[in-house]
TrEMBL record:
Domain of life of the native organism: Bacteria
Subunit structure and binding partners: Forms a complex with KhpB.
Main localization, broad class: cytoplasm
Entries under InterPro entries matching the protein: KH_dom-like_a/b, KH_sf_prok-type, KhpA
Record carries keyword Chaperone: yes
Protein name: RNA-binding protein KhpA
Length: 75
């Protein structure tokens, strides 16, 4: 799932080299922390958080396959 978030985020931003994803995993929960260049923060969040919500939805759908709960935080 880390790779999925990286691919989507790198496609959205102007500075793809600054995209970092940190993973914290427990037994049935995965926390993904996405950090991007401060200039690209608005592109990842989107108007009224729509892009961030879509990103979380896609990652959540992928997580169903692994039977884990996933949260995506944009730092």
């Amino acid at each position: 799932m880390k790779e999925l978030v990286e691919v989507i985020a790198k496609a959205l931003v102007d500075h793809p080299e600054a995209v970092r994803v940190q993973v914290e995993e427990t037994e049935n929960h995965v926390a993904l922390r996405l950090s991007v260049d401060p200039a690209d923060m608005g592109k990842v969040i989107g108007k009224q958080g729509r892009i961030a919500k879509a990103l979380r939805t896609v990652v959540g759908a992928a997580a169903v396959k692994e039977k884990k709960r996933v949260t995506v935080e944009i730092v």
